[in-house]
Amino acid sequence: MVSPAVALRRSLLYLALGLLAAVFIVPFLWMLLASLKSTAQIFAFPPRILPRPAIWKNYLRVWQVVPLARFYLNSILVSGVVAFSQVVTSAMAAYVFARLYFPARNLIFIVYLAVMMIPTQVTVIPLFIIIRRLGLVDTYGALILPFLAYPFGAFLLRQFFLTIPRELEDAALVDGCPRLWILVRIIMPLSRAAMVTLGMLAFMFTWNAFFWPLLVTNSSEHFTIQVGLAMLRTQLVSAGDADWSLLMAATVISIVPVLVFYLFAQKQIIRGITMTGLKG
Amino acid sequence: MRLRDILRSPLRRGDVYTGIVCLLPSLAVIAVFVVFPIFFSLFLSFHKWAILTPEKPFVGLANFQRMFASPEFWQCLGNTFLYTAGVVPVGAAASLGLAVLLDRAVAGSGFFRTAFFLPTITSIIAIAVVWLWVYDDANGLFNTLLRALRLKPVRWLTSTRTSLLSLVIMTVWKNAGYHMVVFLAGLQAIPPSLAEAATIDGAGPGQRFRYVTWPLLAPTTVFVLVTNTIFTFQVFGPIYVMTGGGPVRSTSVIVYYLYQRAFEFQEMGYASAVAWVIFLILISLTVLQMRLSPRREQIW
Amino acid sequence: MKRRMLLIALLAVLTAGLAPAQKVSLVLWHSYSGVRQQLFETLIKEWNKANPSINVKPEYGGSLWSMRDKLLTAIAGGAGPHLAEIDSYWTPIFAKPGSLVKLEPYMAADAKFNKADLARASLQSTQYLGESYSIPFNLSTIVMYYNKPLFKAVGLDPAKPPADWDELLAFSQKLTVDKNGDGTPDQRGLVFPNKANLGSVWYWLAFFWQQEGKLFNDALNAGTFNSEAGALATDLWRQFAREGLMSLSPGSADFEAELAAMELSSSSVMGRYRDNMGNARFGLSALPKAKAVATVTGGGNLAMFSSCPDKKAGWAVLSWLGSTQVNKRWALATGSIPVRQSVLGTPEYGDYLMSDPKGNMMISTLQNAYIRPNLPEYGDASRIIAMAVEEAVFKDTDPKPLLDKAKAEVDALFKK
């Protein structure tokens, strides 16, 4: 039995959530509907909500205008490898920052934080020069190698590892377990939420990266989805052959993998117990 | 504790080796691909480099002197501080609120979490198209709503007074889901038994939050505030795609200024100097945030 | 012993002749995607087939906005392309430090390359300090598009677009309509980019040159744009903004969506409007005049970089791409204005001109087209001017002091 006060609070809660969700979703609906309209209908005033007629063909055409399938696969490959690698390297580094003390440790952690404070616009050319010296221009290596590790993940996981009670590890240490075993068998399972979150965020950041892939790849076999979207945008600002609905359709398609990864990640994080007040 | 003492104690010796092994992969990648280019940019900040030619004449502090004497630099810096001051606190509070509301597997929470995360996963370019429509003076969503409520329409992106605020609103909207996800992961780490115990003791939701959730969420909160500040201060995408710094430089932020000097005018040395000033500002802000957060080992 | 060596030497000489001719592989960056990319790559394929010893590999280098950044990064890293499409006003950026190959000697040595045949504005766009560093490929001018049914609806003659500034103002006022009575116009008379980051200076120059303004002095070491011409052009824009005749936050397709009745835009958009709106719905005309008729050119050229391993081969490719036959095909397919006068005389292009009065109008605007000066300081200067104009228009203030301040900044550029 739920008391009226709780019921009222709950319905207010849902009302608030519903309004908020509308605020967040409306721009997407606009984009989704725009992907099915002609350009004139997209920007018409008074605004037309539903497309008339709905150009479903856009979703077929978009794969032909540029080699979108290839770009898609490239992005999945690159983002997937980078995400996995960042989770692994960050977990290992985070464990050191959280638990293993040695003299230079805090200094290195501060360096980790510090490197996130330099805008990438000034490091992009030196990085390109390094890639060039390694002979990796226009290869998957150029898209993956520089991002196999990044301080952000180490910082995130460090904060999580700090919240894990030391007693768990101390017991294992006293038993003579090696640190690495503790990391893999005790710490990581307890931090599943954080690690999955990190993987998803790393996937997302890599997926949405545009500047670096544009600079470092030349042949369309290596282009990522964002470069593909840029090709569809063509010369939007000056005059051009921009087909807005096609661009919207491609954008909708480009969101799907990250969304799927996100839904998978959320399943790992949701807590099963409902705690909205009284039980029974 | 000195290295010698550490290496001598049996428990700790393994730690140092393990520490090195665990840190090495991450450190190696970051040292080569992140730290080295940063040192190169430090070198460049004391030189002039026109990118297309290899000459890099030494100019000492000239880049910094020019920067501090440039009114455009100060205007961009001011815009950036205003923008960051708007986005970070509001964004963190909003994300925390959303996370707390959605932490449990209540009906529909999956749908809501997805809804709130959608803006984050979409690239800024698509977002920009939509929000240019939202902010349109004549037919945009906001002004249409304002007129329907008999209020005066606002010149969102075309007035120098509201342009930065418009970007702040859009950014909070876009990034709310991102920090929400981090907070959700943090909330998951809090043992539910603690909250249950508090409820049994008679604590209401507000008290539960204040005495159980909030303190245990502290490391996550610190993480969100610190990284949010670092990344928000370096904002580039929305300005590049939506406003180009205008109207009349009212939305020109410091990284956009840096980008223009670097690529539009091929002044990579000067741009590097600006980058290092940004670094100094951010490290000061981070240290400040560290000092202000509660001194407990678990947080920092 | 000696005989054997003689035999070997003979064999070597004979087989040397059998070795395949030296093959050159050149990389060419372009900014095309979609239909234009297919056409461009078809052209390159034809070249490769006809010239097996010079193989060209076309690569997408980003839109023209991002390609500049990509070029800078690649050249700094020693990985730049050999040939590339460049926006004409980048010429000083790449020519001054010597990244581009000066093409004058190749033009002179190539009997087939007719320099005099190039459209004046096109040729000027390739020059830095009087010498050519690229060949013209794409050409466009700013023209006016106007919506015929919307003209009729307010009682204007759809066959008579505004001829001068007075008519432009009067027509805009008539065409700015508040349909639902909420105080803001739902239909604007005019639309064009009026913010600096969207390239407003390109449009402002048209108005400026219509008032016979001069950007720089003859010695090319000081700005003279803070003249009356500059003030008049800026004041006109202020009036457009103040009276709501143009939107300060125009949408991306206001003309096509019929939210604006007249648009100033590039001639290259004509094809898109023809496809999406239908030929009968819109008209194309030259920009309204003031003291003079004037418009501005834009476009992309093709250049050769100093990293090109075989400059003669590179020139052969460029000269073919800029030839009458190729340019004719390109112009017909993409709606770009032909860069060579001889294209106008070809039967195919002649047929096109006869069938489409808009095409004729587009070509005719070239006669009064001016190009942005290819001075090294122009990039900086144009930005300074654009910001001054933007401030005057968005804040609705007197442009004279702002332009004077801009002149001081530009003069300082020349002194550096």
Concise summary:
Chain A has 280 residues and is mostly helical. Chain A has helices at residues 4-34, 39-42, 58-65, 68-99, 105-115, 124-133, 140-144, 151-162, 166-174, 179-190, 192-208, 211-216, 225-233, 244-269.
Query: Uncertain spans of chain B, ≥5 residues at pLDDT below 50?
Result: none
CATH C-level name of the largest domain in chain B: Mainly Alpha
Helix content of chain C: 40-55%
> Mean of residue pLDDT of chain C?
90
- Separate helix tally of chain C: 18
Biggest interchain interface, per-side counts: A-B, 100 and 110 residues
**CATH topology-level name of the largest domain in chain B:** MetI-like fold
CATH architectural grouping of the largest domain in chain B: Orthogonal Bundle
Can you give the helix content of chain B as a percent range?
over 70%
Cα separation of the termini of chain C? 72 Å
Task: Report the mean per-residue pLDDT of chain B as an integer.
Answer: 88
Give me the CATH architecture of the largest domain in chain C, please. Answer: 3-Layer(aba) Sandwich
Strand content of chain B is under 5%
- What is the CATH H-level superfamily of the largest domain in chain B? MetI-like
Q: Remind me, CATH topology of the largest domain in chain C?
A: D-Maltodextrin-Binding Protein, domain 2
CATH homology superfamily of the largest domain in chain C = Periplasmic binding protein-like II
Largest sheet composition of chain B: none
The value of Rg of chain B in angstroms is 24 Å
Rg of chain C over CA atoms, rounded to whole Å, is 25 Å
